[in-house]
C-alpha cells in the first residue's frame, strides 16, 4: 500500500511538472509558405528533442490572402488561447496589426524578414517586437564597404533590380556615394516575366562592365543566362549579386570555360558546428542542409532565440502563464522580461542548439544590425571574404576553420577551377604609323601570322609589359587608321577610341594625344613618351635678400649727395633764422628775467626737410618769407 501511494504521488508530480514545462506558441503563415513551415517545425522538433526543461506546443494559423481584418482575428485567437509568443507573419502581409496587439498585451512578437515598405525606425514603437533578419541599413553599409574597398574598387557601375522584390533602402549608402552620371552610378529596373533580352541589350549598349544585380533566386539563373548571348560574361565583366539567397538559385549550373566574368555574391555566414568525429570518420558524408533560404534560417533562429530567453526567465523563478482574456485587454508582465533577455543575449560556448546564421546580436530596439556575411563566388562555391560591422572585409584564407564538417566539405567537394582568375588575353587596338607600329616585311617563302606580322616601338613595349605582368595579347589595327575623334552630329567616336568604347579592344596604344574629350570616355596612363617641339629656358636663381635692399633704387653716390644736400639746406635754414629778427622770441622766466631764444636747431631743421620728403607733417615752420621760399 505504501508503495502504491509513492507511485501515485510520483506520477502526479511528473504530470504537473510536464504541464509546467509545456508552453504554447503561435505562428502565422500564408498557405504557400512551405519552406517557412518546414523551418519552423524543424526548430520546434530540435528544441523538444534536446531541451529537458522546455516543451513547445504549437498553434498555427494560415492566411489565404493579405487581409488585415482576417489577420487581426487570427492574432486575437492566438492570444485568447494563451500563447507565449507569436511568430510571423512574413513580409507578404502589409499590416502591422500583429505587432500592435503584441505590444498591447506584452506577448513577444518575433519577425524573420523585412518587407520593401518596412521602416527600421518603426520598431521603436513596438517594444515587444523582435526582428532577427539582417537590417536593410546594415546590408547597405556592407555593400558600400565591399564595393569601395581596395579589393573591388568599383568606380562606375549600374544597379539592376527587380521592382517587386527589391528594396531601394538596401542601396542607400551606394546612392549617396556615387552621383547619377554616365561615369558614376546608373540604375535599371525590370519586372518578373519581362523579356530579359531587352534588359541585357540595354546594358550591352551602355557598355557597362560593372553590374550590381538584385534579383529573386527563383528567376536569377534565367536572367543571368540571357547575358551570355550579349557577350556580358567575358573576363572584363563584373557581376555582383546582392540577394542573400543566391546560393539557392542553381547558378552554379552556368559554370563553363566561356563564363569568365568575375561573379560575386553575398549570404549570411552559415554556422559550422564543432567537429565531434574522429579523423577516421572524416570522409563520412553528412546529410544536406534542408533549410537554405535566408528567411527560413532566420525563422529557425528566431525560435531558438526565443527558447533561450524563455528558459532564462523560467530558471529565474519569475515565470507565470499569461491570463486567458479577450484580445488586448490585459498585459502579460513576464513578456517584458523575456524580450529583455532576448535583446541581451550573447553567444556563449556550450549552447544546446546552434543558430543557422551564426552570429546573433540584437540592438536595444530589437533589430539585428550586426552579423557575418560571406562574400563568395557562386559558380565555384568558393568563399573569398568575410564581412562584419566590427572588422570590415577580412580575407577568408586568414580565418581558422576548426571544424570537422568544414574539413569534410573541403576534402569531399571537388574544387572547381575559377575561370575568372585564368591568364587574361587582351585585344590591343592601334594604328599604322612609323616608327611605332608597322607591317613586318616578309622574306621570300616566309608567311607571318598573328602578332608576328607587326613590328615597331609599340610591339616591343607590349611584349615587355606582357612578360612582366603575365598576360596574353593580340594586336588589332583599326580599320580607319584614325586616332579617335568625336563627331558631334552622330554622337559617335571613331578610330582607337571607338574600339575601346565598344569593348572590341581592352587596350589602345599609339602616339595619341591626351585631350579632355578623350579622357571623359576612356582612361589614360601617364605618357610614356613626350614628342613635339618644346621651349627650354633657364630660370635664374633669385638673389639673396639683404638687409639694405631698400637702398637699391639709387646708387650710393646719389644717396650721399642727397644726405649732403639735406645737411646744407638745414644749415642754411639755421643761418637765415639766426639772422632774421622775427625768428627770435622773448620768453618770460620770472618777473626779473626775460630770455630771448631762437627755435631753429640742426635737429628740427633736418626734420623739416626729411618730413617734407616723406610727406609727414613737421611740427615747426619758418616765420619769414625767405624761410618759406627755402623750405
Automatic annotation (TrEMBL):
Keywords, in A-Z order: Glycoprotein, Ion channel, Ion transport, Ligand-gated ion channel, Membrane, Postsynaptic cell membrane, Receptor, Signal, Synapse, Transmembrane, Transmembrane helix, Transport
Domain Ionotropic glutamate receptor C-terminal: 425-603
Primary site of residence: membrane
Subcellular location per the Swiss-Prot or TrEMBL entry: Membrane; Postsynaptic cell membrane
Domain Ionotropic glutamate receptor L-glutamate and glycine-binding residues, every copy: 435-502
InterPro entries assigned to the protein according to its UniProt record, in alphabetical order: ANF_lig-bd_rcpt (IPR001828), Glu/Gly-bd (IPR019594), Ionotropic_Glu_rcpt (IPR015683), Iontro_rcpt_C (IPR001320), Peripla_BP_I (IPR028082)
GO cellular component, one term: postsynaptic membrane
Regions crossing the membrane: 558-577, 606-630
GO molecular function: ligand-gated monoatomic ion channel activity
One Pfam family this sequence matches: Lig_chan
Signal peptide extent: 1-22
Membrane topology recorded in Swiss-Prot or TrEMBL: Multi-pass membrane protein
Family from the record: Belongs to the glutamate-gated ion channel (TC 1.A.10.1) family.
Protein name, UniProt field: Glutamate receptor ionotropic, kainate 1
GN (gene name): LOC119633732
Amino acid at each position: 500500500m505504501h508503495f502504491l501511494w509513492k507511485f501515485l504521488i510520483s506520477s502526479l508530480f511528473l504530470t504537473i511538472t510536464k504541464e509546467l514545462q509545456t508552453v504554447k506558441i503561435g505562428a502565422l503563415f500564408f498557405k504557400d509558405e512551405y519552406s517557412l513551415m518546414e523551418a519552423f517545425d524543424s526548430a520546434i522538433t530540435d528544441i523538444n528533442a534536446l531541451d529537458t526543461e522546455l516543451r513547445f506546443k504549437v498553434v498555427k494559423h494560415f492566411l489565404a490572402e493579405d487581409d488585415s481584418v482576417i489577420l487581426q482575428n487570427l492574432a486575437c485567437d492566438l492570444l485568447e488561447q494563451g500563447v507565449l509568443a507569436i511568430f510571423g507573419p512574413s513580409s507578404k502581409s502589409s499590416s502591422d496589426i500583429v505587432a500592435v496587439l503584441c505590444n498591447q498585451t506584452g506577448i513577444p512578437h518575433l519577425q524573420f524578414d523585412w518587407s520593401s515598405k518596412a521602416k527600421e525606425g518603426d520598431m521603436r514603437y513596438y517594444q515587444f517586437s523582435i526582428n532577427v533578419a539582417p537590417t536593410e541599413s546594415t546590408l547597405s553599409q556592407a555593400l558600400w564597404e565591399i564595393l569601395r574597398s581596395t579589393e573591388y574598387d568599383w568606380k562606375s557601375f549600374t544597379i539592376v533590380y527587380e521592382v517587386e522584390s527589391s528594396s531601394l533602402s538596401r542601396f542607400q549608402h551606394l546612392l549617396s556615394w556615387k552621383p547619377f552620371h554616365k561615369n558614376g552610378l546608373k540604375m535599371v529596373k525590370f519586372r518578373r516575366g519581362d523579356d530579359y533580352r531587352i534588359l541585357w541589350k540595354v546594358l550591352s549598349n551602355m557598355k557597362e562592365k560593372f553590374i550590381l544585380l538584385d534579383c529573386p533566386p527563383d528567376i536569377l539563373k534565367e536572367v543571368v543566362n540571357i547575358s551570355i548571348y550579349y557577350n556580358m560574361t567575358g573576363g572584363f565583366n563584373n557581376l555582383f549579386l546582392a540577394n542573400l539567397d543566391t546560393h539557392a538559385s542553381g547558378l552554379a549550373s552556368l559554370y563553363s570555360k566561356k563564363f569568365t566574368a568575375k561573379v560575386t555574391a553575398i549570404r549570411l555566414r552559415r554556422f559550422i558546428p564543432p567537429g565531434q568525429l574522429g579523423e577516421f570518420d572524416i570522409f563520412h558524408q553528412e546529410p544536406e542542409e534542408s533549410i537554405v533560404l535566408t528567411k527560413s534560417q532566420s525563422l529557425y533562429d528566431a525560435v531558438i532565440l526565443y527558447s533561450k530567453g524563455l528558459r532564462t526567465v523560467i530558471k529565474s523563478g519569475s515565470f507565470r502563464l499569461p491570463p486567458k482574456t479577450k484580445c488586448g485587454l490585459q498585459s502579460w508582465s513576464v513578456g517584458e522580461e523575456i524580450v529583455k533577455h532576448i535583446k541581451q543575449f550573447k553567444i556563449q560556448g556550450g549552447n544546446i542548439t546552434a543558430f543557422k546564421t551564426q552570429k546573433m546580436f540584437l540592438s536595444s530596439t530589437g533589430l539585428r544590425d550586426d552579423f557575418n556575411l560571406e562574400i563568395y563566388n557562386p559558380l565555384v562555391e568558393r568563399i573569398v571574404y568575410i564581412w562584419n560591422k566590427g572588422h570590415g572585409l577580412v580575407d577568408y584564407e586568414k580565418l581558422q576553420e576548426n571544424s570537422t564538417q568544414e574539413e569534410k566539405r573541403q576534402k569531399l567537394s571537388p574544387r572547381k577551377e575559377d575561370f575568372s582568375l585564368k591568364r587574361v588575353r587582351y585585344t590591343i587596338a592601334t594604328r599604322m604609323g612609323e616608327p611605332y607600329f608597322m607591317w613586318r616585311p616578309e622574306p621570300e617563302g616566309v608567311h607571318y601570322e598573328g602578332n608576328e606580322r607587326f613590328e615597331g616601338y609599340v610591339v616591343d613595349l607590349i611584349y615587355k609589359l606582357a612578360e612582366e605582368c603575365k598576360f596574353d595579347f593580340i594586336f588589332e589595327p583599326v580599320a580607319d587608321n584614325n586616332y579617335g575623334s568625336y563627331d558631334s552630329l552622330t554622337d559617335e567616336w571613331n578610330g582607337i577610341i571607338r574600339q575601346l568604347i565598344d569593348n572590341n579592344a581592352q587596350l589602345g596604344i599609339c602616339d595619341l594625344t591626351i585631350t579632355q574629350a578623350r579622357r571623359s570616355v576612356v582612361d589614360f596612363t601617364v605618357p610614356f613618351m613626350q614628342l613635339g617641339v618644346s621651349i627650354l629656358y633657364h630660370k635664374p636663381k633669385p638673389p639673396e635678400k639683404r638687409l639694405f635692399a631698400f637702398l637699391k633704387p639709387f646708387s650710393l653716390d646719389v644717396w650721399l649727395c642727397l644726405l649732403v644736400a639735406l645737411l646744407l639746406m638745414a644749415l642754411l635754414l639755421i643761418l637765415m633764422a639766426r639772422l632774421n629778427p622775427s625768428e627770435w622770441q622773448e620768453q618770460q622766466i620770472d618777473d626779473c628775467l626775460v630770455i630771448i631764444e631762437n627755435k631753429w636747431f640742426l635737429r628740427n631743421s633736418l626734420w623739416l626737410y626729411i618730413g617734407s620728403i616723406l610727406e609727414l607733417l613737421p611740427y615747426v615752420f619758418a616765420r619769414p618769407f625767405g624761410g618759406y621760399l627755402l623750405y
